[in-house]
Amino acid sequence: MRTRKKTKHSKRHLRRWVKIAINFIICVITYFACFYIATGVLKLMDSHKNNDNANLAFMEFQDSEEYFQEHIEDFKKWKRKEWMNEDDLEEKLRLCQIACNYELIYAGIHKNIDVKARNLREHVLGQYRDSRKTIEIDKEFLMCATPTEVYNVVAHEVTHCKQAEEVRAYKSTDLRYQDLILFDEIKIYEFEIKNYIDGEEDISEYAKQTVEITARLNALEREEETFAKIDSIPD
pTM value? Predict the structure, then answer.
C-alpha cells in the first residue's frame, strides 16, 4: 500500500510539473507572437505613414509637367547609364514611386498608389492590386531590366488603375447617362475586370483582353513620350 500511495503521489507531482511546463511554454510562445505581430504592425504603420506623406506631397501637384520639373534630378536617374549602375533596390523603388506619381497626375488620378517590390510569379513583371492600392514589381526584374522596360511596367499598371477608376466613375454616373457612347469601352473594362483571364489560365486570351491591349498601347506611348523628355535633360 505504501508503495502504491507513493506512486500516486509521484504521478500527481509529475502531472503538476508537466502542466506548469506546458503553461510556461504557451506563455513564452504567446509573448513572442504578440511581440512579432506588434513589431510588424508598427513597421507597417510607419511604412504607410511615410508613403502617405510622400503621396500627399505629390497630390498637391495638378500638372504633370510641374511635377516633372520639380523632380527633374530624379528623372535624370532614369537615364540608361545611371539606372544600370544603380544597385540599390530601395533607390530604384523610390524612382518607380516618382514615376508612378507622375503617371497618376498625367492621368488625372488623385489617389495614393504605393509601389512595392515583390518576388512575383514566373513571367509576371508587375501587377496592380486595386483593393490594396498598390503596384507590385518583380524584384529581379527591377534590378536587372533596362529603365525603359521598368518604366513601361509602371505605366502599364497605372493604366490598370486608370481603368478601375473609369469603371467606378461610370457606375457612379446617373442611370440616364450610362448609355452614352463615351462609356462603351469602359463597360468592356467592367466586364473584363470582373471576369479577368489570368495569363497562367490562357496566355492567348489574356493578351486579347481590351484592358490588356489598352494598357500595352498606353504604356508604350507614355514610355516613349517620357523618355524623350528624360533624354533631353542635360547631363
Answer: 0.76
